[in-house]
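Team,

Forwarding the record for the chain on the shared tracking sheet. I've put the sequence and predicted structure together so nobody has to dig through attachments.
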Amino acid sequence: MNYRIFLALIFSSIYTFGQKNYSITAKSGLTVRDAPDIAGRKIGKLEFDEKVVLLEETDFSFSTEQIHGFWVKVKSNSIGEGYVFNGFLKLFTGNKIKYTLNNSEDLQKELIATVDGKETVLISFEDEGCFDLIEIQDYNGDGYEEVLLETNACGGNCCGNSLFTFSFNGNEFRRSAYIGYYFGGMNLNYDQQTNRQFVVETNSIGAGNTALCEDLEETYVFDHHDFKLIQSKGDHKLITLIELKSSDFLSQEAETDYLTIAYDLDGNGVMDQISGSYWERWGILHDCTIVLNNETLDIEAIGSPKRIGVLASKTNNVNDIVIECDTVLIWNGINYEKK
């Protein structure tokens, strides 16, 4: 590669801007490297809550298990200049607000904010709310730190989790709208400008909820004092030849423990069967089975979906199976497995 072109590519991936102060959020410290890459040489480690100056942004992304972000160049008093992953930085504001979380014996919590010695009860024990404090950070750059909270089911599994915040506008606290409704995790990412992004799912699941392929994955940023949606992805539903759905049980005039659909999966002239029962508590299928050539298959990958269907596509001359919207099971010669 031409040397001048190589230099141009490097410099086009690095951006300088007005310097801002950040602090380290990684409890075990944050490694500093000599290049914006995980393969870069380690030149030191920044301690938790240590202050750094952000010098440059780059196009070089990096992801941990739950955080997506970018490499940035920082300067510290302890190490000097180097590159770190911005997923463990937060804008330093001087901590003008103190948030205190108090617990009760029955899982309810109380949240108190203190500004200039004045206490404000944001959530009281009487509200009977169950939630966890996720992080405290200045999302909108106004010098006041927001508190990010996650609702939970008070130790049960009746309900999904959602995120919400409290922010301070200089006079009063504001509570944001709720985002997401999920039973798994959520991701807190950073963009190239080290702005927090909130990635949450909205799952259509719950008591008697048989809605199919309506789940969303949404990405939000914090704008002024509330969340702002910037991206939304919906489910992709594969077309089936025949299918069994949890909603099929709702159309039955008489109560039925099991429903069965029949299809010749391997084309040998014998009708194979796909069966399942209905779990009303979650609006899903339960105890799903596939009987191929009069043999009941043991397929852990099926789980308890809202739909199981037969696809037109084949693997090893046997029709593929879809569960939920687009999870495909293929025939490996002995059994079905996830594609």
